[in-house]
Design goal:
The chain has about 300 residues and is an alpha+beta fold. It folds into two domains: about 120 residues, Arc Repressor Mutant, subunit A; about 150 residues, Multidrug-efflux Transporter 1 Regulator Bmrr, Chain A (Alpha-Beta Barrel). The protein has nine helices and eight strands. Strands 1-6-8-7-3-4-2-5 form an eight-stranded antiparallel β-sheet, covered by helices on one side. The radius of gyration is 23 Å and the shape is elongated. The two termini are about 15 Å apart.
């Protein structure tokens, strides 16, 4: 069972990588990649990043830059043509991105070829750093992927979770500003006496930051409430499905949560013998920045399992 499930996720990622590699001349269709992997775009992004060390879009951009560097080293294609082929609208924006990654301009990179031919120095390397070992190839060859295998430093529990009735305040915008929704939720819930001793605070996230502009990201600040509690009109209501979930606990700043999610879904999940169920993933916050320093913040991560 575990070997079959591991190969399912690795085969799905291999297929996605092959599509990225073959599609450097087109805009990346992340939704199509996720469908091909039988995952939601949200889950696909986390699995891909955790297993390969970069997002699909970061891989696509890096391979385009490596292709441009290969051309600079091997032919006389104009830099403007290379800029457009790499997905940049202007020569200037391409040059900035190229310098950021190669620490030199495209013209300086090309000049290194001439100096190398004259025997003066070694040419600049074309390949950029990559944990996955995936690089641009000038001819069609099988892609050899180095999946990140290091043991994630986390303990995983499989739990049967009850259905949760939650009161919510919706947030649209960058995820790191969901605290504004939690402040509003706390204000209303306190006024309405909804914060009981067993109440839990949840964060529910609906969109993939890879394909959704930051200003349009949808999330919800949520508070568990009793089945018979009457909610004021300022609050929304959601039923978080019960069932089988994998859970892990993260201790530390909220800024580290994306990396924790990547290890959870990109390293643990493909080797776990479990498959994702299409439902919401969520976070439960066991304390708050008002209670403890950020190094001691405790967050539980939950993903739904078949």
């Amino acid at each position: 069972m575990k070997d079959d499930t591991r190969s399912f996720y690795e085969r799905a990622l291999e297929k996605a990588v092959a599509q990225v590699v073959a599609g450097l001349d087109q805009a990346l269709d992340l939704q199509a990649l996720a469908r091909g992997a039988a995952l939601s775009t949200f889950h696909f992004h986390r699995v891909f990043r955790g297993a390969l060390g970069e997002t699909p879009l970061e891989l696509h951009r890096r391979l385009r830059l490596e292709r441009a560097a290969f051309s600079l080293s091997n032919d006389d294609t104009p830099v403007t043509t290379l800029a457009f082929a790499a997905g940049y609208e202007t020569h200037e924006s391409f040059t900035r991105a190229f310098r950021e990654h190669y620490d030199c301009s495209p013209s300086e990179f090309r000049q290194s070829r001439e100096r190398a031919r004259a025997g003066c120095e070694r040419p600049y390397p074309i390949e950029l750093a990559s944990r996955s070992g995936i690089h641009f190839q000038s001819r069609a060859v099988p892609v050899n992927i180095q999946f990140i295998r290091g043991e994630p430093i986390m303990e995983i529990e499989i739990k049967e979770m009850p259905e949760l009735r939650v009161a919510t305040v919706s947030h649209v915008g960058p995820y790191n500003r969901i605290s504004e929704a939690f402040a509003r939720l706390g204000e209303i819930a306190g006024r309405e006496q909804l914060v009981g001793p067993s109440a839990e605070m949840l964060g529910i996230y609906h969109d993939d930051p890879e394909i959704t502009p930051a200003a349009e990201l949808r999330s919800e600040a949520a508070l568990t409430v009793p089945p018979d509690a009457k909610l004021p009109k300022e609050l929304g209501e959601r039923r978080v499905p019960g069932g089988r979930y994998a859970s892990t606990r993260h201790v530390g700043p909220y800024e580290e949560l994306p990396d924790a999610w990547a290890r959870f879904m990109g390293q643990w999940l493909p080797r776990s013998g479990h498959r994702l169920r299409e439902s919401v993933s969520y976070e439960i916050y066991r304390n708050t920045p008002a209670d403890v320093p950020k190094e001691k913040l405790e967050t539980e991560l939950y993903i739904p399992l078949v």
